[in-house]
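Moderator note: this is an archived Q&A kept for reference. The question asked for a predicted structure of one protein chain; the sequence and the answer are reproduced below.
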Amino acid sequence: MKKVKVRIPSGKIVIRNKRRQVGIGRCANCQGELHGTPTAHPIEIRKLAKSDKRPSRAYGGYFCSNCTKELFREKARLI
């Protein structure tokens, strides 16, 4: 965390910790943006319901939908 000087209403300057900006979730395969996942700090995500944290499909929250389709096509060819 970064320390930042902040002036409070009384005119006094205090040091506070500044939170880092949260990045967008990325696909493990193609580095594309993950849809259906929240962009928030881990402590805020922890408070959400399980269905709000990630998509309920297979590999949801890890692979994007296009990479998931490719993976299943590949697995179907091997069988």
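Archived answer notes: The radius of gyration is 20 Å.
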